Amino acid sequence: MALPQSLRTSVTPLELELIASEQLVEIVPLITMEKTAFISGAYGPLRPPAKCRIPLWMATNLKLKKKCHIVPPEWLSVDFLLERLTRETSRPEFSKLPFRFAEIAKVVLDVASDDVQNADKIKSLLKDLREARQAKSRDGLQKLDHSELSLPNLCSMEINEIRPFFIQSMGILTQLVREPSAE
Amino acid sequence: MASTSKAISNSAHQQGQTCIAFSRDGKIAYTGGLDTLVRIWHTDQGEDQEPEAAYEADEGITAVAAAEGCWLSGGHDSDVRKYISGKAQFNGLVMSAAGASIRCLAVDPSGKRVAVASDELLVKIVDLDEITNVVVLEGGHKKRIRKTTWHPSGTILTTSSSDGTIVAWNISDTGAKVENVIDGVIPEVVDPESPEFMHDCSAVWHPSGQYFFAASRTHEIVAISRSTWTKTSSLSDPNTVGVTTALALSANGVYLASACNQEILIWSVQTKRVLWKHPGTPNAFTIQIAFSPTENLLAWTDTEGVLSRWRDAIPAESPDPVHQTAAGSAQGTTTKRKPTPPLWGEEPEAVAEGGDPYGDDWIIDDLGDGMEDEPEGAKAMRSGDGFVKEMVSITKAQPAFQPGSTPMENKKRYLAYNMVGVIEVTDQDTHHIVNVEFHDRSTRKGYHFTDHFKYDLGSLGERGALFACPPELDHPAQVIYKPYGTWSTQGDWTYALPKGQRVLGIAAGGERPMRSLRDPSSSGGDIQGQGNIVIATSSGDLTFLSGSGMERIVLGVEGEYVTMAAAEEYVLVVHRPGATTIDGSQSLVATLISFEDFQVLQEKPLPIPKGHTLRWIGTTDEGAPAIYDSAGYIHLMIHHRRPNRAAWARLMDTNLLERKQGKDESYWPVGLSQDTFMCLILKGRQEYPGFPRPLIQELPVRLPFRNQDPVDSPIEERIARERIQVNLARDALGDELTSPDIDKREVELDKQLIKLIQVACKTDKAPRVIELVKRLHFPNSIAAASQLAGFYRLIGLQEKIEAIKLWREQNATPAEEAREARQGFAYDDAPLARPKPFQNFNPPPKVDRPGLTRSAGIVEQTEFTASSVAIRAGRSLAPRASASRSTSPEGKRKRDDNDDDLSCNTFDVGVKRRAVGESNVAPSPKPSTCIAIQPGRAYISIIYCRQPIFSEDWARSQEKSFRKKTRAQQTYPKERELF
Asked: What PANTHER family does this protein map onto (chain A) (predicted)?
């Protein structure tokens, strides 16, 4: 256990990214490939120019070899994110986004920014979205309860972010609440 | 074609904005410029004249106009000045615009009032006789007004604003009100200092008053109807690309002059084609054009401050630009002019009522393409005889096109865009850059090359890319084929056409490579050949060449070639055998010609609705021909492998697509596979895809079924669609019974059917269950259906299903029947054997007269019985076979003796089968159409129609007696063989 205590309790973002790589994305292949069996399942066949749904890790791999174009998911567009951002800033609750949107967006933008229209604008929108949501989750700290925490529409990366601190605080709260009854 | 006469030019003003107006009598031209001067030119004097000038203005002149007895000028100094006609004599201020620049002056048709547009966001109409009499038009614009024009009646004023709107004002004695705002036609130019601001964006009214022309933001010239205020048609020329900077109509409205790319173009309003061109001043763009109101004279001014006058702009042999009727030319020459044609715009109402889907475009242009490339004599003759036709709205014949190509736009175009790849062309003025890219980069490698021939046709086949260029100067039309493969250019070959012939269309077909073309293995590389080439030429033929450039055959086209697409083993050619019909049908016919031996496999008229045109043809991934028309339908040719039995199945109606609802978009097909329609989605009124290359979208194929049941309908649709595909796949099988792929699909189909059976069982619809059960493919599925019926406690139904299962097990499977049917096609369509002279002692062939036979029980047409029955119905191509059917045993023996062994074998099978069938149905008055049915099958059919309620025991007993009978009869042909 070389890692400091604070990090040991939570999953690292890289690990989350790995988990998100199992999600399916659409690609436009540039090569022909028969249906191929992998550990996680059989994918393909790839028949250009027909689109195909394959896991993100495979899409990344093909993209890096210039063997496909990744079709960005429909939520990874300026219009959609702008709409979500306005909703995020105008309403108290978290707006609905894909559970692993942060990881997928990062991978797609890192690997295939040339396939995404307005990649720069999308990057800045994602950043804004993240900040708006972070502010909300900080606000949520006030409502922290010792027994339960409901997090509707919170995404994996955000949960992961607040998890160590929230769990610890909830533990302390539990202690504080329990003690009067014990006396 | 450039006109013979040359324009004379005078340097009139300093660089920058200039303007021009003719006096009412056409003798004087007034020009104004940024040098604050208005010069007065006498049109009858030449280049050497010294024009008078009016010096009163303090700042640049932006507008001049001529009224009755006076002329007006306005400029940046915000004053409108009045001068005495023909002289530089100042006659007083008309109005002042309080510090805002005057942008346009328009004198109404009577010459009494002037509309003044300035930067004030309002238009003032000033009475020239009484200048205090002013009508102010305000509230219609939010940005400064650039141009204003009058309707010929003087009751409508159109103002073009810098925010891209055109406002039509209704002017009456009492006041003015906005009649309509037309947005989105003219470009939006906000900055008054930008060069675009000087472009002429005015609405130029036709003298008939029915419509006006304006230069649109899409670089076309559009005609906008007065009655509906919508675009009715547009003028665009494939050879001229660029923004139109000025527009003018001749006095009688026959010609339209426009300035584009430093050229002056004269269009025929009637045919919407460019007739003549004249070069403008180099490095300057023309910003105002004017036709003389009384002479054959065109004048324009440009940003270099040069005034150009083009006398005799309209050659003497063409209709006069001034007068409505036949008259001698204004110059007093004795050339007899042709009568002015009736104007296209004279009956726009009639056109609009026709509900015609492509605007006015389909009215025939009787001057045709010939206008540009025919000798003068022929042209005069044609324009003379064409006018009668014009009165009748004949459908414009769709010109030849190459599927997947687009016109040149912004110096770029697609020559081909299909499922193999894309050919993109970039115009570099002196040459083209051709870029060939493939969707599948593992099989073929993309490349690009410099093209000095300017190829205008391209086709991307499975085995190579084909290009064709038009003839130019001394080099003839030629075709170049670039096969894909290991060697870069060694395989290329060219095929030149004789002088005077052009290439209308090209197609490259070939077998789809299973593996990479670079793969040297026996299955992958070039061992399969380099495909097949078809070239359609202007001399009315289709030339077939092999992939290595060997000429194979020249076929004549029965009519006018329209388009073609090549598949693996055939080419689909679309032609027009006769003329279009008067009610809007294109009357096109598709022909499938095989590459192997040039057989016509199918010949079918295209199912295109009236008033619509063919947009695309191609083949599906499975090799079936498909078409797409402007009505938005996709049709697939089913049974295309069965000779002369093809039909067009409507595979999809894109208007019903969910995504299309409430949106203005259209689809540009790229390809079709089993369940997806690959296309590019065009937004709005866009007709062709642009650059950069849009992504191919996949739309689900849905048969346009009308039942709206939420549970059953989608499944039924899916089954029907899958059925089409399975049948297509099965037709390709040949002697194979089935393929693993088909089996898999049929299992899927059965699963869907079982779902339907379950629903039907639930709702207790026994007939439907029976029907669905009969459509099942595998005994296991029938057993499942029987279980289902048991589950729902439908015991009677379960018994019937069990009975069906039993027969199915005892008889030929549907797959076997289908194979037999396939073999039957070959048999039916076998070439007629020539009888040997004096050796044919057979009685004359039996003639079927279905009308004379007695009525018989109807054979139920299920999927499985129908296939074999229908095939033989009405087919008597092999008279010998049918003869043997009806002859006595002696006759048969004779035939056997005389026949050669080769045909004997094949026929015997048929004879045996037929004999069995015949005797089987002998007691009952059955029509001869079902005699070829297998014993058991016919049996089922009979029971079905005669005996709806039966028990298993009864069926067994029937079967037993039937078998006995059959056995007895089967001996008969065997005996015959012994003889």
From this structure: DNA REPLICATION COMPLEX GINS PROTEIN PSF2 (PTHR12772:SF0)
